[in-house]
Structures are given as C-alpha cells and as structure tokens.
Amino acid sequence: MSENKSPQARPAQLDDRSPWVLDTRELGRHAGLSKAVHRTVPVETALGVPDVITIDAGSNLELDLTLESVVEGVYVSGTASAVATGHCSRCLDPITEDVEVDLTELFAYPGSATEETTDEDEIPRLVDDRIDLEPTVRDAVVLALPLAPLCTEDCQGLCIECGVKWADLPPGHGHEKIDPRWAALVDRFGDETGDDQADGPGKQA
C-alpha cells in the first residue's frame, strides 16, 4: 500500500484488436452487474521454462471468465486452460499435460480509492473502460507450470550407470563395481575357474 503517491502518467491506450483486451462498458460501473466471457487467445510467445515444460507459441489459451462490476473496479474471475509440452524430469520422456489455472484479479477504476492508494504493479487499472488480461493470465499460467514435470508420479527415472530407463530394465539389474586393487586377482581366479570347467569332471591327474 502506498501513501502520498505522486501523480502518475496516464496509461497508454489499449488496442481493441488485441484478443487480450476486454471492453467493460456494458457493466456501466454499476456494482453488482456481471457478464460471462469465453475467449480463445493465441499464444505468441512460449510460456514456461524452455526444455522443461512450456505452452508453445502457436497454441491456444482458453479463457472462461466472469467480469463483475464492484465499487472499486471490475473483478475478473474464472479459468485459463491450455496444453503444455515438455520432458519428464526423471526419465526425460516427452510429456503432454493439460493445464488449468484459476484467475482472480481486480482492475481498479481511475480515480477510485484503490487506484489512488496502490501502485499499478500491485493492482492493474482499467483504461477507457477496458482491461488488458495478458499480464495477469501469463503470470498465473507460468506460476502453475511444474518445475519438475513427471510422466507418472512413480517414474523411477534412469539408471545412473547405463542411462536406460528403470522401467525398461529387467528385475535385479545392476552394475557390479570391483575395487581396482582386486581386479587382477578377480581376472586370475576367473580364468582358473574357466579352465577347470573346460577340463570337465573327467580330467586325469
């Protein structure tokens, strides 16, 4: 919360052609009025962490929202959903994941108490009765993406010795390690054992 705020520059006008911009004039600043909005928005820049999990550029975000006029502004609530792609953090297999996030945001009216006592990076503003959803939706979606995505909750990952998925390896798979100080003895006795087996039980003294 800010006090003794200095006058702020008027925000730039929003572009009505942008799919992120919503016109709220139907609500007429009458508290209690609401309207539903469904919109499909193309993703122009990938959202997420590259090479981990992203909502790719060229895909779509589905917005199902309710806009409600309240005393201090327009309250937006609803969901944003999309399909994310990436790689399992344990086995590195490609994954596809449905993502749905809840959205709740107040857009303050110019001249309202909220507008006068908060910074714009705390609470967004209406500009000429329009709101820009993009920063709010992008932030919510990126925060909802997992930092360590998994193909399944019980994924065992890869064998650290050979790099093969544990799910594809036979039971009892392992890599025996021999102390290099004993390696010569192992080789020697291994060879002698092999010779004895080759001679067979019928060998004469």
TrEMBL record:
InterPro entries (alphabetical): YceD
PANTHER family in the record: LARGE RIBOSOMAL RNA SUBUNIT ACCUMULATION PROTEIN YCED HOMOLOG 1, CHLOROPLASTIC (PTHR34374:SF1)
Q: What is this protein called?
A: Metal-binding protein
Q: Which organism is it from?
A: Amycolatopsis oliviviridis
